[in-house]
Amino acid sequence: MTTSVSIKDLSLNFGNVKVLESLDLEVAQGEFIVLLGPSGCGKSTLLNCIAGLLDVSDGQIFISGKNVTWDEPKDRGIGMVFQSYALYPQMTVEKNLSFGLRVARMPKEEVEARVKRAAEILQIEPLLQRKPVELSGGQRQRVAIGRALVRDVDVFLFDEPLSNLDAKLRNDLRIEIKRLHQRLKNTMIYVTHDQIEAMTLADRIAIMKNGVIQQLADPHTIYNKPTNLFVAGFIGSPSMNFLKGDLNGGTINVSGTPIPLTNYAFEQQLNGAAVLGVRPEHVAIGDEARKMPFQVESEIEIVEPMGADTVAWTKLGGQQLTFRAAAEVHLEPGQKVLIGFDPARGSVFNAETGNRI
Amino acid sequence: MTTEAISSRLPTGAIDTSGPRGPRPKSVTIGRIGVYAFLILSALFFLLPLWVMVVTSLKTMPEIREGHLFNWPALLTFDPWLKAWDTACTGRDCNGLKPGFWNSVKITALSVPVSIVIAMINGYALSFWRYKGSELLFGILIFGAFVPYQVVIYPLIIGMRELGLFATLPGIVIVHTIFGMPILTLLYRNFFASLPIELFKAGRVDGAGFWGIFFRIMLPMSVPITIVAVILQTTGIWNDFLFGTVFAGRENMPMTVQLNNIVTTTTGIREYNVNMAATILTAAVPLVVYFISGKWFVRGIAAGAVKG
After folding, report:
1. Beta strands A187-192; A319-326: pairing state
2. What chain B residue is nearest to A91 in terms of C-alpha separation?
């Protein structure tokens, strides 16, 4: 696989504030990579640097093997889709799509052909003569994608493209973006703070915090083997249970409740303060729990019915524990249930450094 | 909790439904009548001088001397208007306000577009193309809005003299452009700052440069704010007296200066009817601008305040 976008030792400062620091990232040809993180983590800044809309303080950016660090956005072979759509309000959809091509003085027939193709792919042909104000949010975002599409670029950059849409439309367009990627096979770099978008779309997710990539891996690894407490807590909803305790000889003692970590694949040995992370969906109750290596009786405090399933809050060794149960299971506050989980499926972190062990 | 348990807690028995329903009826209160009475009285009070001006300008001098200030003219005459426009004397010339009117047209027609175009580019550059010191420059520009004109007139006269532009048409146009710059730049900067920055970014990704984005994206969007700027500048420059007296020179004396000369002429009798007619004529242009553009003015200000 060839490299499409390559970022080497990239730093960006706004005055004294370091937004990105010595960041490296390699994106393969045709890969869909999602930059995920909370607001202010530098993910949009990184995207703007790749687009050439921000001057970097240090480091280099390569796109399709060419050093574009000092190039103007238009010369980088990128198309960009913005959160607020950023359609030119006084132009029709057709003019919006063709603007970049007209600026580049492309021959008229070629412009028409490309606009036609993009409109076909995105199914916006009936809208071509309308102005952006006459379009719905989803249609606007489609036009915005089309504007990147007509430029026939190597790399698509998405800056939270679905954040302004309502939940249903967001799901629809998410699927469409995935379909688009499967059809075009372009490299796509997608910024979002929505973990569901990240999990569903990405080939690989880069989770960022304070301008540093915490973990770069495929969604499966990110979910099952988070590299540190931040990643573990950020991915998953409801979020992972963190049980603080003392790790000694392969058993973690959570406020008086010993949990043996049999079969857990330790990456390093540690005796001392540790955190056991357990996903709510990995906790079983009732008969299922009886099959689990670790079992405990506990009292239910709060029940949140979600429709598809039910989230219940309980305590383990005095520490908060949530678990996800099937919607059919009848749970009530105060009820005592047997819960169980397999510690080998969990994650153990060093309590001091927060890193996975 | 079961459903039966919850529903059993709801109050039983019929609710009285005869009370208020639908839109609340509108009633005329004493307070409202008072407000309208106050507004009407205020309007009449402020319209009174205009009434006096109009009726005086339509009277003959003998009738004015009778002193019935508010009366409708007994003998209607339009001669004072013709005289004010065509033959009233300012010093030795007796050509009326006519030359002054055309001078004002020339000055306004040149100063308004020049100042607006420069302010537009200023505002655009200051809001989208931030560079080191751009905030400082903007601060200085805004500070300029608070400097009293009188303070800078003398240095400006010397500057203009050295450039050979003192008492010329380009000279007065430059002066108006300079003094319009702070407020107009502020107007445009704030308007452009209210547009999403992503629009500008999209323009750059599409390959448009400084001028490309300005002419093809930003300019078509700034029509409402430009209407505001045109109104501000047209009325401001037309009404100007100070700069006209100082910088325009004899050849380009604007209408306001000429009006002053007609009204304050010390030889002969004071022709109040001609003075009134001349004043109304001079004030007519800004008045017409306000009447025509009032709606646009409000719309433009609103457009600047609300994101599109």
Report:
1. unpaired
2. B217
Pairing of strands A272-278, A241-248: antiparallel
Contact present, A298 and A279 (Cβ < 8 Å): no
CA angle A265, A204, A86 (to 5 degrees): 150
CB A153 within 8 A of CB A162: no
Distance between CA B299 and CA A133 in Å, rounded?
18
Task: Please name which of A172, A212, A170 lies closest in space to residue A192, comparing C-alpha atoms.
Answer: A170
**Chain A residue with the nearest C-alpha to that of B208:** A103
Whether residue A103 and residue B199 make contact (CB cut-off 8 A), yes or no, is no
Confirm if A71 and A52 have CB atoms less than 8 A apart: yes
Q: Where are the domains of chain B?
A: 30-77, 98-305
Tell me if the bond preceding B155 is cis, omega within 30° of 0.
Answer: no
**Helix segments in A185-302, DSSP class H:** 195-201, 219-224, 229-234, 287-290
Q: For A300, phi and psi rounded to 5 degrees?
A: -80, 135
Q: Give the one of A74, A84, A87 whose C-beta lies nearest to B207's C-beta.
A: A74
Q: Say yes or no: domain B98-305 is CATH 3.10.20.310.
A: no
Q: Using CA atoms in the order B229, B233, B235, B241, what is the torsion angle rounded to 10 degrees?
A: 160
B296-307 b/e with 16+ CB inside 10 Å = b?
bbeebeebbeee
Contacts of B204 in chain A (CB under 8 A): 52-53, 72-74
User: Are the beta carbons of B221 and A89 separated by less than 8 Å?
Assistant: yes
Domain A3-232 shares a fold with domain A239-350? no
Q: At a CB cut-off of 8 Å and minimum separation 6, what does B4 contact?
A: none
| CB-CB contact of A117 with B247 (8 Å) | no
Query: Phi and psi for A88 in degrees, rounded to 5?
Result: -75, 115
Q: What's the rounded Cα separation, in Å, for the pair A204 and A224?
A: 14
Question: pLDDT tens digits for chain B (308 residues)?
Answer: 444 555 555 565 678 888 888 888 887 888 999 999 999 999 999 999 999 999 999 999 999 888 888 889 988 999 999 999 988 887 777 888 999 999 999 999 999 999 999 999 999 999 988 888 888 988 888 888 888 888 999 999 999 999 999 999 999 999 999 999 998 999 999 899 988 899 999 999 999 999 999 999 999 999 888 988 998 899 999 999 999 999 998 889 999 999 998 888 766 788 899 999 999 999 999 989 888 887 777 766 665 444 33
Q: Tokens standing for A326?
A: 């099937």
Query: Does domain A239-350 match CATH 2.40.50.140?
Result: yes
Strands A32-36, A187-192: pairing kind: parallel
d(CA B216, CA B211): 8
Domain ranges of chain A: 3-232, 239-350
Q: How many other CB atoms are found less than 10 A from the CB of residue A268? A: 8
| CA–CA separation, B117 and A281 (whole Å) | 63
Residue A149, both tokens: 């599409």
- Only one residue has tokens 């560079």, namely B131
- CATH number for A3-232 (one of 2.50.20.20, 3.40.50.300, 3.50.50.60, 3.30.70.240): it is 3.40.50.300
ipTM of the predicted assembly exceeds 0.90: no
Q: Searching chain B, which residue's CA lies closest to the CA of residue A105? A: B207
Contact residues on chain A for B203, CB-CB shorter than 8 A: 88
Per residue in A108-154, pLDDT tens? 999 999 999 999 999 999 999 999 999 998 899 999 999 999 988 99
**Which of A345, A352, A354, A322 lies closest to A261, judged by CA?**
A345
